[in-house]
Write a structure and sequence with these properties.
The protein is an alpha/beta fold. The protein has 15 helices and ten strands. It has a five-stranded parallel β-sheet with strand order 6-7-8-9-10.
Length: 357
Amino acid sequence: MKPLERLAAVFAFEEPDRVPIFDKLRNEQVITHYAGEHFVPERAMEISLKACRMALDCTGAINYPQVETTETTRDGFVWLKERWTSWIKDRPFCDIAGLAVWVRQEIERLEGFDPRAGGRSAAQLKRRAELQSALGDTVFLFGGVKVGLNDAYHHAGLELFSFLMADDPALVSRWLEAAFRANQRIFEALAPNPSVCPIALIGEDIAGRTATLFSPAFLRQEFFPRLRELVQMYHDSGLKVIYHSDGNLNRVMGDLVAAEIDGLNPIEIQAGMDLRSLKERYGRRLVLVGGMDASGLLPQGSVEDVRAATREALRVAAPGSGYILGSTTELSDAIPPENIIAMWETTRELGRYPLAL
């Protein structure tokens, strides 16, 4: 089977030839191994894509190492880009009053945002097509359209965002609504096509290691209704939806199911998520994507530990299909390459249907 055929079978809760593999590959030694050539910065993207093409059935993000740079955006945010990631180093406000001023300006910007202006959406579609072409049969999940909560609290900083929620909940609600409607216009401009990619990935972190970042009551008011609307937009376009959030989602699993998501990622084991219980409760309702601990097991365990954990994940979650194996976050350089290779080789060896585990 080709990757797209495997994924179609998994989402139909049928058994393909083997369990598919999903991940975000950020490990230079593993990239070198699967690409069959030395990883060099000058060709980082090309070689990364080659490795993904050889190793993965699907991926949700394509990154490559960057030269460390500091960039200041037009609205005053200072971003530090380093290797595989980037983060906000400084913000144009330092207190709630300053944040509120910025939020009102941001609402105005979002309400006037046109994703087609200046050829933005056309360029994004062209870039996606180029990446999918370079990935070959490996499926590049449709992404980039969100609810908007994650971006909001990231830009504000979680502490100031929480204070603004308490001081001016109406302003926060207006902000989140403007952000969602801007994302809705992005969706309409990109017009996801199931014949190109039948699966979308909505990435919106709403939880930490022990619980959700915000109260379930807040999420039920400001997040889940918009998530459900976005999922419905994808469904109306013929796409299945994998929802991604790190952390412990146990208190809101019912809300996620009610939002009609089709799959859940990454099943963060060290945050209290459990493949067995999720399979027992939602095994004919949700495709489980992930479940291989990237916080403890993969960076610290032995090859034998990884093989045993992979076998157990397959035994628990793969019967009857509805499982895509992957890590609980991403495969960084902190993980010994032999452990990543062992996880994938074990999946290809033992994850073939009919399972004999």
